[in-house]
Amino acid sequence: MRVVRGAVTLEPPIRVEDILTRTWPKMHVGEADLGDYHGALVTDGGRAAMYVTKIANTDQKNIILAHLTWHWIKQALKGQIDLTRQCLVHVPREDATALAQIEREADVFASELLVPLEVLESHIDFPAEPKTEGEKTYMEQRTIELARQFAVPSDVMKARLKLFAARRRSFRPNKGPFRRR
């Protein structure tokens, strides 16, 4: 995929803005006052501009740009203006409309791009299901650290760890304080 090839490495953090400027040098990425919107993609004849709300921090900006990148890839040639209210990965959508499904797909793309499970696995040093208070506390702290390391909001990292745990119930790390012995 062209987006992934634009990344220097798949090790975190993956900076979407850097990938976009290397892959599509004519794409404009900027900040704007978007009201209650988080991001906006404006396309016209195969060209695009992505705008992120001015109040977004670096990690929020990263996930918003990843979300908008999916819209760019899927809809770039349609010349549509696409405003996105929620760019948080795996946020339950209130309605079962076609638009809600499109937004969920963009959320999944963004989370897969920024926190690939195969890469995440090498950074997990705690069990999938904590058994003690100490393990639970450590896992909460590490979740925040991993979110910073992968440059995503904490709720995105929590969702990715939950998905990882669901797929790998028996996972026990090979490193860290809770490694297999």
How does the SSE layout of this entry go?
Elements: H1 2-5, H2 16-23, E1 28-32, E2 39-44, E3 47-53, H3 58-75, E4 81-84, H4 98-114, H5 117-121, H6 133-150, H7 154-167
Parallel strand pairs: 1-3
Antiparallel strand pairs: 2-3, 2-4
Helix pairs in contact: 3-4, 6-7
Model description:
- The N and C termini lie far apart (39 Å).
- The protein has seven helices and four strands.
- It has helices at 2-5, 16-23, 58-75, 98-114, 117-121, 133-150, 154-167, and strands at 28-32, 39-44, 47-53, 81-84.
- It has a four-stranded mixed β-sheet, covered by helices on one side.
- It has two domains: 2-114, no CATH class; 117-167.
- Helix 3 packs across helix 4 (98-114) and helix 6 packs across helix 7.
- With 181 residues, it is an alpha+beta fold.
Keywords:
single chain; four-stranded mixed β-sheet; 7 helices; 4 strands; about 45% helix; about 10% strand; elongated
Task: Report the end-to-end length measured between terminal Cα atoms.
Answer: 39 Å
What is the number of E strands?
Answer: 4
User: What is the percentage of strand-forming residues?
Assistant: 5-15%
Rg to the nearest angstrom?
Answer: 17 Å
Question: How many individual helices?
Answer: 7
Structural class: alpha+beta
- How would the global form be characterised? elongated
Poorly predicted tracts of residues: 85-90
Strand order in the largest sheet = 1-3-2-4
Q: Major β-sheet, in short?
A: 4 strands, mixed
Helix content: 40-55%
Mean pLDDT, to the nearest integer, reads: 79
Order of helices and strands: HHEEEHEHHHH
**In total, how many domains does the architecture comprise?**
2
